[in-house]
Design brief:
- Strands 1, 2, 3, 4, 5, 6, 7, 8, 9 and 10 form a 10-stranded antiparallel sheet that branches.
- This protein is α+β, with helices and mostly antiparallel strands.
- The chain is globular.
- It starts with a helix and ends in a 7-residue tail after the last strand.
Length: about 160
């Protein structure tokens, strides 16, 4: 049987949308029970949505949409080009852990800068050790306290 170019193109297009990691990653381990309910209330980011405005010290270009939604131990959103998901947890002292990120794997030529932002978003989620509020902003920090990304509230995303 002879394979037609159209079949090959379809197969290649479908592999571009493959999931990066396992469909059902392990759930995040529970946050330490040492955190009191009042501490958790002040640091609770559950059911919030954020827009990346700066990644790796550079502003996110106009037209590039990078969004982070936090809900019930799950982080999800769009990283500039591809959609992503991961487990997530925060301790009362601001410590944060994002699990292995899974994402679609498309290449985006437009808008300009989308792929660079995406690489920075995934690096920030991978390397984040703390989350701090700075006014209305949210800042992801590495273990040494270096800012990895700055986010602003995303008022365009629906709250679930």
């Amino acid at each position: 049987m002879r394979t037609t170019p159209m079949v090959l193109m379809f197969a290649l297009a479908m592999t571009g949308c493959a999931v990066h990691a396992a469909r059902d990653p392990e759930p995040a381990p529970p946050i330490s029970s040492a955190a009191s309910a009042s501490d958790m209330a002040t640091s609770n980011l559950d059911a919030t949505a954020w827009r990346f405005v700066e990644v790796a010290g550079r502003p996110v270009p106009a037209g590039v949409h990078a969004i982070l939604r936090l809900r019930a131990g799950r982080a999800s959103g769009k990283a500039g080009c591809n959609s992503f998901g991961a487990t997530w947890q925060q301790s009362a002292d601001g410590g944060a852990v994002f699990g292995q990120v899974m994402s679609t794997k498309m290449a985006c030529m437009q808008p300009a800068g989308a792929m660079q932002v995406e690489h920075g978003v995934f690096a920030a989620l991978r390397d984040a050790a703390r989350i701090e509020r700075d006014g209305d902003s949210l800042v992801l920090l590495d273990a040494s306290g270096k800012p990895l990304a700055r986010l602003a509230p995303d008022t365009a995303s629906p709250r679930h």
